[in-house]
Amino acid sequence: MLFSRASLLFALSTVVAAAPYEKRWFGGWGQGSNSDVLESFLDFGKRHSWRGRTTTQGQCNVAAVQMPQAPKPLPPPSEGLTLYHVAVGRGTQNYTCDLSNSTAIPIAAGAVASLFNVTCMSADSPTLLSAIPNIALELPTPTATDATSPINRDISGHHYFTDLTTAFFNLDTTLSTYGAGGFKKTNSSDAPSTAVKGQHGQGYGSVPWLKLQAKTKDECVFQEVYRINTAGGNPPKTCQGQQAAFQIEYSAEYWFYS
Ligand SMILES: *[C@@H]1O[C@H](CO)[C@@H](O)[C@H](O)[C@H]1NC(C)=O
Ligand SMILES: *[C@@H]1O[C@H](CO)[C@@H](O)[C@H](O)[C@H]1NC(C)=O
Ligand SMILES: *[C@@H]1O[C@H](CO)[C@@H](O)[C@H](O)[C@H]1NC(C)=O
Ligand SMILES: *[C@@H]1O[C@H](CO)[C@@H](O)[C@H](O)[C@H]1NC(C)=O
């Protein structure tokens, strides 16, 4: 869904108006009257006891949480697996172009993203969570060296590629150890037609929703990962005017099953 900045501010400020918060996501974007609301969005799920569903802080009951479906649904998690972790990813999709070929199209060359823990938000405020990738896309990615960035207290790990077909999820950090492993894509489904085109509503569309499976079964505590509610990340249709390597900003939710 395409949100204008004004409507996002409005929607969020009505929800979090009475909420205590700390600034979790800083950056130049949105410096102005309502910027504190946007800067605090990822903190939201942690601090609220919605209708008593959150038991203690940082713990929540995900047993009944339903993962959102693509218009053409991805296959469900395999029998016996349960929801383990939910993260918002913010980073770039990488592409390469063969500049010697005038009809070349961009080729996917991995992705890099920081992952932020929104597990409790998936249980306590699923509607707000589904808007987070669109919001995150408009905010800068805090880097690991931004020691002062409060959002780094919510970090659950990092996503990157170890080779062209191995999507790696490293959820082991100094804050928590949720596991790590290499995954391969097993299914893909187009993002809804209403998905954002890119930052500021400009771009080439949102990357597909995916199902991924652990490459080695026993390597990792989580076995299947979904990329859903994508925002941005698609490349241009042709390489005309592109560099040999370039990045497209994106955000998405990652749902981990173990
Ligand atoms: C992807 O999942 C859908 C729905 O379960 C299924 O119909 C389709 O065959 C799958 N595609 C691949 C490539 O496995
Ligand atoms: C962070 O992730 C863990 C594991 O999924 C979960 O138990 C915890 O409640 C999460 N914290 C928040 C604030 O969502
Ligand atoms: C140029 O790119 C097109 C589109 O990807 C491809 O079909 C074609 O084989 C490429 N030509 C060469 C010489 O690599
Ligand atoms: C993707 O681009 C980022 C930013 O330039 C870079 O740090 C990273 O190494 C690239 N990853 C891959 C797999 O090309």
TrEMBL record:
Annotated signal peptide: 1-18
UniProt KW keywords: Signal
InterPro entries: DUF3455
TM stretches of this protein: none
PANTHER family per record: CONSERVED FUNGAL PROTEIN (AFU_ORTHOLOGUE AFUA_1G14230), MALATE DEHYDROGENASE (AFU_ORTHOLOGUE AFUA_2G13800)
UniProt-recorded name of the protein: Malate dehydrogenase
Native organism: Zasmidium cellare ATCC 36951
